[in-house]
Write a structure and sequence with these properties.
The protein has 13 helices and four strands. It has a single domain, classed as Glutathione S-transferase Yfyf (Class Pi), Chain A, domain 2 (Up-down Bundle). It is mainly α. α1 links the parallel β1 and β2. The chain is globular, with a radius of gyration of 19 Å. Bound molecules: glutathione. Glutathione binds next to α1.
């Protein structure tokens, strides 16, 4: 089994937490979308959406995060011979609710224009370079270029950013209410709904928005502290986000883009 992912991608974190929690071994491939690695022909041919994560088991390839997580669950159940836990509807309901929030707009709106434009321009150049290498994939690459321009337009529309913020607030308010009654997000056991929800909190931390979104919700704050003790959290998140490590990946990425831009090596 292979997972194509990146430590900073929220959806990748969801899948990796599920894999760790279920104790499933896999081969890990890092694909950094900020350096345009997701546009490389071999990856792009397998996955023309260029999005991560992608999970591969033999010839079976799964692209949607929620589908990957449900597949992992079925795999774990069949490996361990256990029957599914009760309360599964609540778990699915929460998984879908969390899946409904896309972090893209909120994230981009908190990156200074200067850096955002620099990275976006670099990615567009990478797409054009890969398109020249593989003209047979041109229409798919064109679609990614269109996406990139559309995202820039959306960023200028304050309503889109506000919509994303409102959706996040609703999700966190619902979580706060739920956590008044249960220890975890879909009951008193840690479930796949939690593996999906924790990365949302991690993204808020990464954007330095804890004060605004987390600390004002006491139940969510306590829950976040609790899940940080889990081994899956330490492996998937802690390893990359504790102290100076948080800055290392970002710095490495920016250096890569700077050097490639200087030498026009896309
Ligand atoms: N396939 C995912 C979406 C994943 C997604 O949006 N991934 C982001 C990173 S978290 C990505 O790969 N962005 C790069 C791009 O769009 O080119 C799903 O539908 O659940």
């Amino acid at each position: 089994m292979q997972l194509y992912h990146h430590p900073y991608s929220m959806d990748s974190q969801k899948v990796r937490l599920a894999l760790e929690e279920r104790g499933i071994d896999y081969t890990s491939y890092h694909v950094n979308p900020l350096t345009g690695k997701n546009m490389e022909v071999s990856f792009f041919r397998m996955n023309p959406s260029a999005k991560i994560p992608v999970f591969k088991n033999g010839s079976h390839i799964i692209y949607r995060t929620i589908d990957i997580i449900q597949y992992i669950d079925r795999l774990a159940v069949s490996l361990s011979g256990e029957v599914n836990v009760p309360g599964v509807e609540k778990v699915i309901e929460w998984m879908q609710k969390v899946d409904g929030w896309n972090p893209k707009m909120l994230t981009l709106s908190h990156i200074p224009d200067k850096y955002r434009n620099f990275v976006s321009k670099f990615i567009r150049r990478v797409i054009i370079a890969r398109m020249a290498e593989s003209p047979e994939l041109a229409s798919n690459y064109h679609e990614k270029l269109r996406d990139a321009y559309e995202t820039e337009d959306k960023m200028r529309d304050l309503d889109t950013v506000q919509e994303s913020e409102e959706k996040l607030i609703k999700l966190l308010d619902d979580a706060e209410m739920q956590l008044e009654e249960t220890i975890y997000i879909a009951g008193d056991e840690f479930t796949l709904a939690d593996t999906m929800f924790v990365p949302v909190l991690v993204r808020i931390t990464l954007l330095n928005l804890e004060e605004e979104y987390i600390n004002c919700r006491p139940k969510v704050t306590a829950y976040y502290q609790l899940v940080k003790h889990r081994n899956s959290y330490k492996v998937v998140i802690g390893k990359y986000f504790s102290g100076w490590r948080k800055h290392r990946t970002i710095l490495k990425t920016l250096c890569f883009i700077c050097i490639r831009s200087i030498f026009r090596a896309y």
